[in-house]
Amino acid sequence: MFNIGNIQFNDFPLFLAPMEDVSDPPFRYLCKQYGADMMYTEFISSEGLIRDAKKSLKKLELFGYERPIGIQLFGNNIHSMIEAAKIAEEAKPDLIDINFGCPVKKVALKGAGAGMLQDIPKMIKMTAAIVKAVNLPVTVKTRLGWDENSKDIVEIAERLQDAGIKALAIHGRTRVQMYKGSADWTLIGAVKNNSKIKIPIIGNGDINSPEAAKEKFERYGVDGIMIGRYCIGKPWLFKSIKNYLEKGEIIPEPGLEEKTKIAVMHLKKSIEWKGLPTGIYEIRRHLSNYFKGLPNFKEIRMKLVTTNDEETLTKLLLEIPKMYPEY
Prior knowledge:
By secondary structure, the chain is of the alpha/beta class. It contains 15 helices and eleven strands.
């Protein structure tokens, strides 16, 4: 049991990673239903917020059932990040999270996200300034370092703690790795087991099964685990992990009927929040993920990602279990 500010967590909490175009309110709704303990918004551009960009402001919308919920910000200008944090605070999240981990070119190569790992003094200065500027707990998500020659996360964690953050999430890869290779949890464990570290440490990377989650908790002693790509199309992964941690039992994956109901609910929530046609366009990457592994699915997948009518798309989804009665 531990706290991040006033947020109290029981043993072995599971966190939904902030993911662009993924961890929006419709997807967060499903993950919460299946047991996610803490969730975050998609990462939000500080420059977008302070310029009142419509897309950035939309991401500030939070709902009571999502709590605890954090708003994650990214940017490379300290003043802009301070102002954005103040704006985000007005949306009344439970905490502000700083993105020092996003590896994509359009973010990292502009000095934001994981790009900040190339300027640690600026990272620390920015963090301390945001901590001072807001009354909410401030947390950070980052990576092991920029590349194999700069995996300085143990020292970085100490300096971030000194800057005032209340928790640190670490993805076990460098920026150069992107999402390739395996996540290195040994350095995450080294941070957690550093006697100087007093804040909660949340591990992230390659959590694709209940067994993987249990192994990481037991071997590395992290306070929490953050799940990212592997819950796309599988929000029930949170429930599966929780059941295994609490009871030692592997529960069967949902059948095709239940997966279809989840996909239909996701579609409905997406349209409710984003309207038409955006609600359909932006859920397409999710829909086919719900049905991964089904044979001869290419033709159906093409229809899922090209149908623009809500009623037609819903009917198509509901037909899938009938096409695969053995599943």
